[in-house]
Amino acid sequence: MGYIPRHLLENLKAYKYRGTDKSLVTRYILNPFWTRFVELWPLWVAPNVITLTGLSIVFFNFLTLLYYDPLYLTEKEEFEGPPHWLYFTWGIGLFLYQTLDAIDGKQARRTGMAGPLGEMFDHGCDALNTTLGCVLAGRAMGLGRSWWTVTSQIATLCNFYLTTWEEYHTGVLFLGYFSGPVEGILMIVAIYLTTGFYGPRVWENKIWTVLGIDNISPFSKIPNLPLNKSFMVFAAAGLSINIFHSYLNVLQARKAGKGKSHSRYHPLVLLLPFVVSTAIQIAWLSHPGFNDSYIIQSASFLPFLLAWGLQFAHQVGRMILAHVTSAPFPAWDWIWIWSALAALDANFPRLFGISPIIQTNARNTSYVVWFTFAISLLAYARFVTLVIHDITNYLGIACFTVRKKDENGHWKNAQPDKTS
């Protein structure tokens, strides 16, 4: 038995990717570079191989964090973190990820492999990169294990969820004049390079002082936040704008008869799954705690963020699958259950005035967090494997080779799309 129902598999053949990117940086700088860069890749290289290569680079960056900054996984965290030269490699790696993530679609059109599988694979890798990027960027800005890093995680995941939610309702992947995949990534690359030159303590400098306007009204009356926390405020403002524009795009699609919802407010209700899933994680993080077992201040913080990211990838993966198969919006995800039970157990003292059943000490809390990470990893791996198996078998394509099946069921080489 497959993961995707048979009647939904039939909708895969009707799927066609539609995207809009209004970024001036993309139009005048990056896209000409991407167009030339993709021509360096042979036609026998499958687009999903390019996508996976980009994610592997970011994952390698993450492994270097663990290797050169082992205290990040212990109870004792150093502010300075890894050697400064490492941040330059993170910047180069993230730029390469952005480049490969941009040209995989071009390679798909060159090889005639464009389709729903590429859409699923691309978004799945992007979802994983979101959390890894939050961890690395938070370390580069000296945020460390703090609520500011949690805030960064929420803002980044929310932007990704919002984009996927909008694409589901409009049928178009819309990137505005300022978007996370373009300008947002370039800003993080700049953060890595800045930290490489000056170290993470540069982000402790006050923003108005750096700009030389701390004694000028009205700035002298506005809190003079450090640069890293100012960046979080900027991200929150950008998120608010993105929410507004995404909802306008959904409304316009509905009025034009192209949207999947005829109700004005029903799409807004489908933002609640992200709110609920985030509330579960916050409830677990903010439990009363005991001694030194508070998750944010302990070595459990990193596996907690990774488990959260994997659950989010599972959530948006099902949303993208619903988009390419024209299925109902997946408002509920069973993967939340374990985190919800863990959050409830940790908050027994606050809710009922009794001790937790399982998380009675720091060691048990650590076990629960790591077990949650393992469950989340296995669940997402299962989802990815089953979906790839269903789509490749039904459409007669391969995931990592440029091949298709002929009428007799034999593999053959795909022909380039000469119209791309």
Automatic annotation (TrEMBL):
Q: Do you know which PANTHER family this protein is assigned to? A: BB IN A BOXCAR, ISOFORM C, ETHANOLAMINEPHOSPHOTRANSFERASE
Cofactors, names only? Mg(2+)
- So what does this thing catalyse? CDP-N,N-dimethylethanolamine + a 1,2-diacyl-sn-glycerol = a 1,2-diacyl-sn-glycero-3-phospho-N,N-dimethylethanolamine + CMP + H(+)
The keyword Metal-binding is assigned to this record: no
Q: What class of enzyme is it?
A: transferase
Q: What is its main location?
A: membrane
EC nos: 2.7.8.2
| Protein family | Belongs to the CDP-alcohol phosphatidyltransferase class-I family.
TM ranges are: 43-65, 85-103, 172-193, 230-248, 268-287, 293-310, 368-388
- GO cellular component entries: endomembrane system; membrane
Which top-level group of life is the source organism from? Eukaryota
**Keyword annotations for this protein?**
Membrane, Transferase, Transmembrane, Transmembrane helix
Kindly list the places in or outside the cell where this protein is found, as annotated in its UniProt entry.
Endomembrane system
Q: What Pfam families has UniProt attached to this entry?
A: CDP-OH_P_transf
For whether the record's keyword set contains Membrane, the answer is yes
The protein's annotated pathway: Phospholipid metabolism; phosphatidylcholine biosynthesis; phosphatidylcholine from phosphocholine: step 2/2
How is this protein named in the record?
A: diacylglycerol cholinephosphotransferase
Q: Per its record, what are the GO molecular function terms?
A: diacylglycerol cholinephosphotransferase activity
Membrane topology, from the record: Multi-pass membrane protein
